Amino acid sequence: DGGITQSPKYLFRKEGQNVTLSCEQNLNHDAMYWYRQDPGQGLRLIYYSQIVNDFQKGDIAEGYSVSREKKESFPLTVTSAQKNPTAFYLCASSIRGYYNEQFFGPGTRLTVL
Amino acid sequence: GQQLNQSPQSMFIQEGEDVSMNCTSSSIFNTWLWYKQDPGEGPVLLIALYKAGELTSNGRLTAQFGITRKDSFLNISASIPSDVGIYFCAGPPTDSWGKFQFGAGTQVVVTP
Question: Mean pLDDT over all residues of chain A?
């Protein structure tokens, strides 16, 4: 079955540690996205990538980093510079950027202890 | 980035009732999307709209692309318990290339 997978489902981190969230898709989509979701707020864009080896900052990129070495994979690293990293993180993909529907993975809940 | 204005924030309804919600923006959209999200899960795409005035159904769900291209509406008819969840709108405004905007969501609670 085609889809988007995110791992792990739950992640706990101590303050000062970097952590990497995995996102893989087998939909052959060109574009991939990372969003952060906080209670009562709309999704906020962290980073997005339209093609391999290229990515752009979203609205809240500070304290995060990404890579896009393969079409299928778009890992997100939450660095110690992110002041309030506890949140629900969602990865999405679309056939190509902008006008196409985005399809979401199941999410990763990150908790900083 | 600017987010969409979605209302109502929550709805408590009885099984069998209809539900309506809407999203508005000051920007013009070429695409409107409606998603449903269950607690702790990723959003699932329900309906996609591509043309002003378009009315599209998916089972008991009906969505419309506003003629001004700045708003969209979602209706759920004859609600059932499994309709419980958060529904939100999304789309790419024409003045913000590459970035979607999202509504904060409407929480729907259905009581028997």
Answer: 93
Across the interface, which of A4, A98, A107 has its CB nearest the CB of B92? Answer: A98
Our CA-based measurement puts residue B44 at a distance from the nearest CA of chain A, in whole angstroms, of: 7
> Over the stretch A40-52, which tens digit does the pLDDT of each residue have?
788 999 999 999 9
Q: What is the mean pLDDT of residues A99-110?
A: 91
The whole-angstrom separation of Cα B59 and Cα B21 is 17
Q: Which residues of B touch A107 (CB under 8 A)?
A: 40-42
Closest CA to A34 of A73, A88, A92: A92
CA distance A24 to A45: 18
Distance CA B79, CA B12 (A): 11
Closest Cβ opposite residue A45 in set B40, B88, B99: B99
